[in-house]
Amino acid sequence: MQRVRYYEYGGPEVLTVEDADPPAPQAGQVLLRAEAIGVNFVDTKFRRGSDSGSIFQRPLPGRPTGDVVGTVTQVGPDVDRRLVGRRVAALAEDAYADYVVAEASWLATVPDHLDSGDASMLAMSAPVALRILRAARLNPGDTVLIHAAAGGIGHLAVQLAKVLGAGTVIGTARSSRKLDFVRNVGADVAIDYALPDWPDQVRAAAPGGVDVVLDAVGGSVLQSSLDLLAPFGRTVVYGAATGELERVPVVKLFALRSVTGFNLTAWRHANPDQARQEMGELADLFAAGQLRTTVHASLPLTEAATAHELIEARSHTGRILLIPTTPPAA
Ligand SMILES: NC(=O)c1ccc[n+]([C@@H]2O[C@H](COP(=O)([O-])OP(=O)(O)OC[C@H]3O[C@@H](n4cnc5c(N)ncnc54)[C@H](OP(=O)(O)O)[C@@H]3O)[C@@H](O)[C@H]2O)c1
């Protein structure tokens, strides 16, 4: 089979396509024949190593993670054999490959007829988008500010905010093309947060302040966002694309504001039953057409470096997929 790893930190060119034997599933694991692999921003940070900042460190050799959609071909010794043949989605390591090992306990079942773009969101991106809105205790009618709203998670969060009954949804992104996209996926207002007056534009759209902020950008975007919260407003911090880990000034919270953090791994540990139930809920929303994934590009697995280039250029809207091209072993 083919797979992509990296053996030194650096630019997209360090991603190396190689031949390897398919891995063997161990206890608690399944082997998937991948049909598509969703590429996530965080892996471009891991690949750059120490240049990315302290929260993005992973050892060499680099085995990129990814949102794999595929069919179970083998199961580990203690895993239910009835899974063989089932089409599933999973967040996995060493995921840029024709065959990928995944944890059996966190497989998302893919509804019939769901395309690989939507399916690629079921295990990680969509659960994060839904859970950050719930972590924010979104109430019907709330005004919601979603940063990086043109991204993989962002464009789902815009749609889910509306599904959950949000009032005004404000999405931020850079470039007019991305702002059009953010409006097209359902935001009422789209604002270019590369402009220095972006907070004033949010104030104009939400004169009473915003009830919810979803932020995985960090830095000055997070700091300015805290000032935009209405009384009882909630910010959910779920990443730091800038690599800037901000201190939250307690004095800003005195104005009846709160900040909470979110991480999918922590959430799965804290409440596995609900985490699994939400994967099913999201599958139903995709199957019903209430939630849609925009696939920005589908590239052959061997062009993983191009996928990373697109993400680092910040040119993508929605999802980027890698597609294995090697025929399955007989
Ligand atoms: N907490 C969790 O469990 C969890 C799980 C998965 C992902 N995440 C985080 O969620 C965020 C979204 O993930 P994703 O895979 O869907 O990525 P994405 O949104 O598709 O891509 C990241 C986007 O962040 C924006 N951005 C802002 N400042 C940036 C900077 N300094 N450098 C690069 N990009 C910057 C860019 O959009 P603009 O060009 O429009 O600014 C970029 O397109 C990431 O920060 C990721 O680390 C968290």
Explain this structure to me?
Keywords: NADP, Oxidoreductase. The structure is a single chain. The chain has helices at about 40-50, 115-120, 125-135, 150-165, 175-185, 200-205, 220-230, 250-255, 265-270, 270-285, 305-310, and strands at about 1-5, 15-20, 30-40, 65-75, 85-90, 100-105, 110, 145, 170-175, 190, 210-215, 230-235, 260, 295-300, 320-325. It is an alpha/beta fold and about 325 residues long. It folds into two domains: about 1-120 and about 295-325, Quinone Oxidoreductase, Chain A, domain 1; about 125-265, Rossmann fold (3-Layer(aba) Sandwich), CATH 3.40.50. The strands form three sheets. Strands 3, 4, 5, 6, 7, 14 and 15 form a seven-stranded mixed sheet that branches. The radius of gyration is 20 Å and the shape is globular. About 45% of the residues are buried. Bound molecules: NADP nicotinamide-adenine-dinucleotide phosphate. NADP nicotinamide-adenine-dinucleotide phosphate (NAP) binds near residues 40 and 216.
Short description:
With 330 residues, the chain is of the alpha/beta class. Helices cover 30% and strands 25% of the residues.
